[in-house]
Structures are given as structure tokens and as C-alpha cells.
Amino acid sequence: MDFNFTPEELAFRDEVRAFVDAELSPGLRDKVLGGKRLSKDDFIGWHKALYRKGWVAPNWPVEYGGTGWTAVQRHIFEEELADAGAPATLPFGLRMVAPVIMAFGSPAQKEYFLPRILSGEHWWCQGYSEPGSGSDLASLKTRAERQGDTYIVNGQKTWTTLGQHADWIFCLVRTNPEARKQEGISFLLIDMKTPGITVRPIIMLDGEHEVNEVWFDNVEVPVDNRVGEENKGWTYAKFLLGHERTGIAEIGRSKRWLKQLKQIATQQPASDGGKLIDDLRFRDRVAQVEIELMALEVTNLRVIAAEMEHKAPGPEASLLKIRGSEIQQTLSELMMLALGHDALPFQHAALDPGYDGPLAGPDYGPPLTGQYFNMRKTTIYGGSNEIQKNIISKMILGF
Amino acid sequence: MDFNFTEEQRQFRDSLDRYLREAYDFDTRRGIIGSAEGWSRAHWQQLAELGALAIALPEDHGGFGGNAFDTLLVMEALGRAMVVEPYIATVVLGAGVIADAGSDAQKAALLPAVAGGEQLLAFALGEPRRRYALTQIATRARQDGDGWSISGRKTAVLHGDVADRIIVAARTDGEIDSAQGISLFVVDADASGLSRHGYPTQDGQRAADLHFDKVRVGADALIGPQHGALPIVEKAVDAANVALCAEAVGNMAALIEQTVNYLKTRKQFGVPIGSFQALQHRAVDMYLHAEQARSMAYLAAAKLEAGVAERRRAVSAAKVLVSQSARFVGQQAVQLHGGIGVTDELAVSHYFKRLTMITMLFGDVDHHLAQFGGQLAA
Question: In angstroms, what separates the C-alpha of A266 from chain B's closest C-alpha?
Fold first, then answer.
């Protein structure tokens, strides 16, 4: 046990900082730090910068283009990028479908898809949830009927994050309606340009277009685009859900938010005319969430270290999801609370980069209330926290 | 950074766990608590032979030169078995202060004797009508010839009634609450003028109220700098809090294991009660708290040798989170056991009581949250 960085780790941190200094444009950094809207090009540009450096897929094995880093290097990398205001890479290609293709895909699928995920040429989205299948995911109804070398897909997926930009979608579809619900599911890779696919936006409570409905109307998918065996898709889906969950705790971003919260509370007035950060009731709440975050950071490092020793993912992955999402919600709530009545104005246009119109309240105010509303999703998505507790219970109790 | 224990540390922990599992079961512990002494010299000797007393003491004075993580491993094992012997009083606080600030003569006189299990120490800090601030010391030590005369009262001194020597914090200068003017002295337990009122604690350990009435000690009794002992006291209390955190982690691990077993086997409405989701999620919440507490105990142990501000901050953070976890896990273990949980018969209530007292020692949640909040660096 040693919580100090070695000289090599410190040198690596300097290397990461130098890279970020050189590659992250001030414009993009300010958008991220200021809570502005990010465009498709913002995400792709940063992805490609990481790709050129060979750093876009730290979770991948080296033979596919991974970095071969230690757990601590990965921690340093994620922390430095988040702290500097770099956009997060999106999980759908790099951390969700890629590990499934590596583990269960055909040689042709690996050869075609993995390099394109790595380079950022393909933007992926996730086709899991359906209107009638949320926590009970295995009840999904989207049908894939086989006709020769083709599946005909009909149905609807929902909550498809950033699907409006996607080139490909990985889908769970029902290939055997007669079997037990988990045993009739297959895992398909579908080109979003295929005729019959319609993407419709869902506007969320903060007024933003982040997620979509994706409709499939007689969409033809080559059988070659099925991952692994027919009707074994549930196994692959579970593999995906249990794989590489450390990122979901969003510790790097939460640390940045904590810093931001303290800055805001230093600038905001308390009711007695002093600074909000000196209000003991508010200060205690900041202190409490900081302590929770300190603990989660160490837990995360413990989990990554165990993962590196190839221990099977245990209940820790769900732990990270639960506590990580709770902390994100608390931080976003405290930032909103810090605003006082300045939390009220809905200034949608002020989130556009380059907005220079009139502002109500302080310049850091506009994104914060929407961010609080937006963060309610974190305890719902990725398997709701209640489902995570069921998963942990199965592991520790057997029920 | 490295998040694994060494092979040597794992073997040491395993041997300690094995010994405690075989020789220190719940009934044995109950017998010890019920005895007149309230602790077992035989088990203390065994802990000495296993190296548990010497592990973190300096190599020059009979120790193995281990670090805070070695102490953490010991405390976690002691926590799992709910050991009542005076490890924190004697080894962490008493020997810790001597190793940190004692003269060579004091180290030579005391540390090998602690490592060998022959000497018990206690650390007399808290006073009546005071709370957790470490500067609230009214006990006075006045220069008397070439020595000192100590007068005052100390309260809830851990294992103060069974210790052979007492390390006492007294004021040689300044007013109560002044950071300057605190000094430490080592006093023989049978010194003239020292009276001890020993009692059992809520969690089956021992403590004492001490009355120093013009207790005379020589010049060589002074530990560390005259007037300037506050940093030593702070460090000792930080070390004790890390040890308590580690002990709580051991307590919680054992308590969760027992609660999970109970949920699997206890039947109501014809089924194991662990099949009820309300109880499952409660058990999961206990697990979440215990894991986060473990992380904080590790973090605090890692920071024990860091700079003062960083150390104090980490220790307060750990004490807050571990205490909150201890409260939750203890209360819910009792709740999930139902009626049998509030009896003396099962270990559950004993773990609950120990966890509760850990949260009350050397600063509670409010105290440490205030300490931590006072250092919120933006």
C-alpha cells in the first residue's frame, strides 16, 4: 500500500498535462468548464486528438490499440483530462460495444469495426431500452426475423443518447419469441443509414436534446452483423453491463465540480451578507460531499487495481455506479442551491457558445439549474440504482 | 501508488486472524469481560508472540519498523474479533507517543517492554467538563525542584486502571485552550498522589478517571519539548483515530457477514427473510457504507506520515465517514436481526456497542466535520 505517486507516475502526469496544454483548445475547454453545449465536432475533434496520440482507448488491450497503462496511470489520465476541462470520450463505442466485439465478435467484425471505433470514424449509440422495457430489459420486443442471410428488424428503441449523431447502433433484438425471455435475444450491429430507421428527439426536463427514440420499420440487417450466436445476446449484454464500469462513477468530473462549487460558494453571498462558503450549514454540506468523493476515489482505485489483476467484476462496479451518481446529484444540487434566487432564470440561449446577449444573474449561473435537473438521470440510467442494489444483493446474499 | 498489501502483510494478517478465530471466540471474550481484571494477560502475551504489538514500533527498540498499514491490519483483525485488550491505549497512543517524541532513554525503557507485552501504557488526555478540543487542558504541572508536581483530573482514560505507566498531558504554561504550554509526562501508575477510579466501558473495555494530587515526577519524566507538546498530542490522537477507523472496518465486516447469514437462514412467512427486497436493499446499503469506510481508513493510514495539514484533513475526513458508516451499519444490523438483535446473547449487539463508542472517541462526526470544513481549500 502506497498512496504516493512514484517518480515515473509524476513524469507521466507531466506528459499528460503537456499533451492537454498542446491539444485542448481554449475555446473547447471554456465550453466544457462553462457548461455550454458541445457539438458533434467538439466530441469528434477531441476523440481524434486522443487517437493521434494513441490514448483514446486506455481500457483496450494493447493488441487492439490500448495503452497498456497501469491502474494508476489510467487514474492520472482521467483525472488530468477532467480537471483540465476536456470533454469526456463517449462510452458507446470505446467502452460498450468494443469489448463485446473483442470478446464475442467474428474476425471480420473485429477487423472492420474496432479500428473505426478507435479512430472515431464511427459514432456509436446504444439500442437497449424500449418503451416497455426499462429495468426489465430482457422483456424487450424489437423483433428480428431471419430471411436467408438477412434479419428484418421491426420495433422501437428509446433513451438513445446522442443517437442523432450516430453512424451505428448496437441493438438487443428478439430472434426467438417462443423461448424464455433471456434466451431469445440476439446482439446486432446496425448501420444507422439503413432504410427504415427513424430517429426522433426526446426533449428532456432541462430543455435539451440529448436522447432519442429510434424506430425500426422493416430494417434489413445482414446476418454477418450479428455478434456471436443467435439467441445468446443476453449473455453478451450482461457482459457489457458488467464490463468496464469504473468510468460510470465520473470521479474526475465530480472533482472538477467540487472545485467549481467552492468557487461559486466563495463568490455567492450568504444571508448575513458574508460569503456563502462561510455559512456553516452550507459549508458542512460541501464538506460532507467532499468526504464522500474522497472515499469514492479510493474505492475506484481499489476496483481498478483489482480489475488489473483480472479479478471478475464484483459488487464494486455497482457500488461505483450508486455512490458516483449520488455524488453527482448532490454536487449539482449544491451548485444550484448556491445560486439562491439566481437559480430561477431559464436562459436556454446562454448555453450556446458565443452567446453575448443579456444575462440575468452571475455569468456562471445559466447552466447550473438545468444541470441539477439533468443529473436526476444518473440514478436512473445504466441500470437504476435500485436495480444495482438487486445486483449487489444477488452477489452478497444470493437472493 | 500501490493498492495491494505485500505477501508478508497478508501472511501476518492471516496468522492473526487464525489465532483470534481459534482462541478468541465470542464466549472467550465474554469470559474476559466478566473477569475482575476485564482483560486477559494470556491473550496479550499471545498477541506479543505473534508480533502484533511490535509490528509498527521502531526496529532500534524491539519493534519491526512497520508503518500505519501494519497497524491498520492489526486493528482490522482485532475489530473482527472485538478484542478488548488495550492495543490502542498501550501500543498506538502510549508507545506511539514515546516512539514519536520520547528521549532515547525513554524509548529504551518502554518500547521493548511494550513490544514484549510486559508493560501496559495509557494516555491521559480528556478532562471533566471538556469535550474534544485538544487544547482544553487544565491539569497543571509545576516545576518542583529539578522535577515536576502534577495536579488535576483526567476522565475516560482508556485502560487507565490497568496501565503500568500513564502518559499525561498537563499544562506547564498558559491558560486553558492555549495551544502553547502543553507538556507530556510519563508517570508510574503507583506514584504517590495518583488515584485511579477504574470502570468498565459500554463496549466491554476498561477505562478510568484519574486524580493527580501533587504527583511528583523527576525531570526525566518530561516527554518532548516543554510547553510545546500539542503537535505530539495531535499526531497521537490522529494515529488513534486511524486505528479506530481500521477497527471499525473490521467490526463492520464481521457484523455484515453475520447479518447476511441471518438473512439467509431466518424464516418468516415460510421464506428466508433475505428474500424480501426491503431487507436486501438495507443489507446492500450496509455493504456500501462499509466499503466506503474501508477506503477512508486506507486513505487516512496513507496520510498519517504526510504533512500536518494534509494528515489532519485526511484523518478528520476518515473519522466523519467511518463514524457515519459505523452508525448506519450498527443500527441496521440490529434492526435486521429483529428482537434477537437487541439482546445481549448475540455478538450483534456487542459489535453495535463497540461501533457506537468508536464514534464517540477522539472527536465525533460534528467535531471532525467542523475540523474538515475549516480547511475547505477552494
Answer: 8
Burial level of A319, CB count in 10 A (0-12/13-18/19+)? Answer: buried
SS (H, E, C) chain A: CECCCCHHHHHHHHHHHHHHHHHCCHHHHHHHHCCCCCCHHHHHHHHHHHHHHCCCCCCCCHHHCCCCCCHHHHHHHHHHHHHHCCCCCCHHHHHHHHHHHHHHCCHHHHHHHHHHHHHCCCCEEEECCECCECCCHHHCCCEEEEECCEEEEEEEECCCCCHHHCCEEEEEEECCCCCCHHHHEEEEEEECCCCCEEEEEEECCCCCEEEEEEEEEEEEEEHHHEECCCCCHHHHHHHHHHCCCHHHHCHHHHHHHHHHHHHHHHHCECCCCCEHHHCHHHHHHHHHHHHHHHHHHHHHHHHHHHHHCCCCCCCHHHHHHHHHHHHHHHHHHHHHHHHHHHHCCCCHHHHCCCCCCCCCCCCCCHHHHHHHHHHHHHHCCCCCHHHHHHHHHHHHCCC
pLDDT at residue B64 greater than cutoff 60: yes
Report the distance separating Cα A350 and Cα B273, nearest Å. Answer: 53
Task: Report pLDDT digits (tens) over B236-263.
Answer: 999 999 999 999 999 999 999 999 999 9
Share of chain B above pLDDT 70, in %: 99
Q: What is the mean pLDDT of chain A?
A: 95
Closest-CA residue in chain B for A263? B378
Query: Quick check: B27 contacting A, CB < 8 Å?
Result: no
The helix/strand/coil state of B46 is helix
A397, B301: Cβ pair inside 8 Å? no
Which of A291, A304, A308, A384 best probes binding to B when mutated, by most B CB atoms within 10 angstroms? Answer: A291
Rounded-to-integer distance, Cα A117 and Cα A125, Å: 12
Q: What are phi and psi of A130, to 5 degrees?
A: -130, 165
Question: Would the CB atoms of B321 and A295 count as touching at under 8 Å?
Answer: yes
Residue A279: half-sphere exposure toward Cβ, Cα within 13 Å? 19
Contact yes or no for A298 and B296 at CB 8 A: yes
Residue B303 near chain A (CB below 8 Å): yes
* List of domains in chain B: 7-88+95-115 (1.10.540.10), 123-227 (2.40.110.10), 231-373 (1.20.140.10)
- What is the identity of the amino acid at A299? T
| Residue range A134-150, pLDDT digits in tens | 999 999 999 999 999 99
Domain-wise residue ranges, chain A: 7-89, 124-231, 245-396
Would the pLDDT of A313 be above 70?
Answer: no
Closest CB from B281, B291, B369 relative to A389: B281
- Whether chain A has a CB inside 8 Å of the CB on B302: the answer is yes
pLDDT digits (tens, 9 = 90+) for A276-289: 999 999 999 999 99
Question: Any idea which residues of A carry the catalytic annotation?
Answer: 244
Query: Which superfamily is assigned to A124-231 in CATH?
Result: Butyryl-CoA Dehydrogenase, subunit A, domain 2 (2.40.110.10)
| ipTM here | 0.96
Cβ separation A1–B301 shorter than 8 A? yes
Q: What is the mean pLDDT of chain B?
A: 97
CATH 1.20.140.10 fits A245-396, yes or no: yes
CB contact under 8 A, A295 and B296: yes
Q: Cβ contacts (< 8 Å) between B284 and chain A: which residues?
A: 389, 392-393, 396
